[in-house]
DNA sequence: CTGTTAGCGCATTCAG
DNA sequence: CTGAATGCGCTAACAG
């Protein structure tokens, strides 16, 4: 390529630009100067919203490459209407079920080119509230949340203003907020019916705190199944440690109306009961049949393999986030919230008394 | 309280301010006007850096409360030096080990008043690179990352510039980057020695991809233990599905030099092997003894309970994040990286051949 | 102790 | 099709 006098002075300017931008992050005007255009042209080339000549676009691209320019997303978000980020609030990250939900959320967000601000509430409504506010202050474009205790949550439409919100796994009292749930009640009912079909009459529901929506919704399913079969209900709440669970179970199992089957409210309680059963030397399913709500990675390898209600964690996170992006991209604030309920599956293994060698899944 | 003429007009102004700010988010100057002070006074009251009179501070606080003013964190981050956010990049969120690590990171971040941008790399160096760039563009104050494949990672000091970075669980090639690891090699060596003490001579290492640092580091420990005992090594790599693992194991177990004990490289492979063992109808530990690297929630409840090397996931996440905040708050860019190695524990249950009723932990 | 000025990097005006 | 001016909300630097 020939170098004319004009080109030479241009090259000189280029050198200046390159050295100038060496120590601080290059900005859009650095790129503009180097390319010999206005900042708006750069902006337009990068955003691709308005058409520019192929030649100038090329020069901009070259300059961007030379300076290794990266747009400052902070400035962009500050200036514009969107931060291209969403918030995710879940109770705990160490719970595999919630972690799976979170995975779905981050995956969908990436598909939309969005970043995710994550935080945990620890099931504490105050922490949850504070974290939601923090996210709002960061101008997230939307929030997906697994709300903490229904009765105490401070998550309302008023708090969020125009920012779209989707709750999942558990609802919030505010009916204008979208929510994605699973069939907690119906699923539990079906599995209790299955236990009854195995001939059990005294079936106990072993559960965590009543203040959690899912635990209660499942309790309802248990009640209905028992009631419909003309059986007496037997609920054991607040099993929040292996010690406590063992103590309670020890007492109940040797009592006069000892249950012959157990249904646990969630994986944490399943774990406690598994521990109690081992300590008490009970044989499953002969001494005691056993089923749990919520499948987990190694349910197939406990002894015996565990019959469970499987919740579609990934689908739920995916559905919630998709719903959020519907709102985000359409920019509408709903006066009435959606309520999506996803189906669950019953996974029959052997702890319920079934003899299958491999799991049988009922939809 | 009496209302003078001056107060009345002030109240009028207040009303105006309140209605004006009703439909858009109140800004600092809204607060300043309502409180009858300058924006800087508001800024100072809120940040608490410079002393202001108790009386004026009070008026500012009142105005803030009336308008429900919340500082725009985006503007603050844009203007200032810090975004008060850190980035977290992990391979997967659905892996309980990584989820635990993530939990520690978010916890420590909150202790420092920081938000966390989370993303998953899926073990793909390109995704990891793109996500890191994205975070840099968002001006995070630091990044904690569980890097993907060592040989292919594009994470270098040059990429991050002055932004502090801490790698954990696995190192990166760039020695200037801080890293927090666990005793992969030493831990594996100890557990293999334990298997040898049980009388095993043919011990196989069953593993995932060799391109993962941890898998290799553990392999090294296995090799050393075997070599020191004068035994022949027997490594089975790329067990990346239950089917494949079953196929390989079936063949090996009936072969002439069939291993009498197995060591798995991580929980995923443990799961595959557990499945294979069940399908092949093998009795643990009599037909085949078994130990795994990485403890998990229900290792106690598999049949038989599993002997494992327990890694301190929470401590590792905590250490990495603390290290990051040391850098972030001190604002120094190190020329030489720290390398912290955390100890592991051996949890003896029954799959190795031990007869303990409860787990015995060796430090 | 407090107010004024200025500008961070970008994209939405509005003119050419 | 392209460029110049303007201001988003906040805080460092400088007055007063």
What labels describe this entry?
homodimer; 363 residues; alpha/beta; 434 Repressor (Amino-terminal Domain); Rossmann fold; 3 domains; six-stranded parallel beta sheet; 45% helix; disordered N terminus; DNA-binding
Structure description:
Chain A is built from 13 helices and 13 strands. Chain A is an alpha/beta fold and 363 residues long. The first copy, chain A, has 3 domains: 5-71, 434 Repressor (Amino-terminal Domain) (Orthogonal Bundle); 85-182 and 313-342, Response regulator (Rossmann fold, 3-Layer(aba) Sandwich), CATH 3.40.50.2300; 184-311 and 345-362, Rossmann fold. The first copy, chain A, is elongated. In chain A, helix 9 packs parallel to helix 10 and helix 11 crosses helix 12. The interface between A and B is large, with 48 and 48 residues. The structure holds a DNA duplex (16 and 16 nucleotides).
């Amino acid at each position: 390529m020939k170098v004319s006098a004009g080109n030479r002075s241009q090259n000189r300017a280029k050198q200046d630009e390159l050295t100038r931008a060496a120590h601080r992050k290059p900005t859009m005007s650095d790129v503009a100067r180097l390319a010999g255009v206005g900042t708006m042209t750069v902006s337009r080339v990068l955003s691709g919203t308005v058409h520019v000549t192929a030649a100038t676009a090329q020069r901009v691209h070259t300059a961007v490459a030379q300076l290794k320019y990266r747009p400052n997303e902070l400035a962009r978000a500050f200036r514009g209407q969107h931060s291209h980020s969403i918030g995710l609030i879940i109770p705990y990250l160490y719970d595999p079920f919630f972690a799976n939900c979170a995975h779905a959320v981050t995956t969908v967000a990436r598909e939309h080119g969005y970043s995710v601000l994550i935080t945990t509430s620890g099931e504490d409504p105050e922490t949850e509230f504070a974290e939601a506010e923090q996210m709002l202050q960061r101008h997230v474009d939307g929030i997906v949340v697994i709300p903490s205790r229904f009765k105490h949550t401070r998550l309302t439409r008023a708090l969020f203003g125009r920012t779209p919100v989707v709750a999942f796994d558990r609802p919030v009292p505010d009916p204008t907020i979208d929510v994605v749930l699973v069939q907690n009640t119906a699923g539990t009912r079906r599995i209790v019916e299955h236990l009854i079909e195995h001939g059990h009459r005294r079936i106990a529901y072993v559960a965590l705190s009543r203040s959690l929506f899912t635990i209660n919704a499942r309790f309802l399913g248990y009640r209905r199944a028992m009631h419909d079969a003309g059986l007496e209900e037997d609920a054991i709440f607040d099993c929040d440690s292996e010690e406590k669970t063992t103590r309670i179970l020890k007492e109940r199992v040797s009592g006069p109306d000892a249950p012959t089957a157990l249904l646990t409210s969630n994986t944490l309680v399943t774990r406690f009961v598994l521990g109690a059963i081992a300590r008490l030397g009970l044989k499953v399913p002969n001494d005691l049949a056993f089923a749990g709500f919520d499948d987990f990675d190694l349910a197939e390898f406990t002894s015996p393999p565990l019959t469970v209600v499987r919740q579609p964690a990934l689908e739920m996170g995916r559905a919630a986030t998709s719903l959020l992006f519907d709102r985000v991209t359409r920019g509408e604030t709903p006066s009435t919230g959606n309520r999506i309920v996803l189906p669950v599956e019953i996974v029959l293994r052997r702890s319920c008394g079934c003899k299958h060698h491999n799991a049988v899944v009922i939809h």
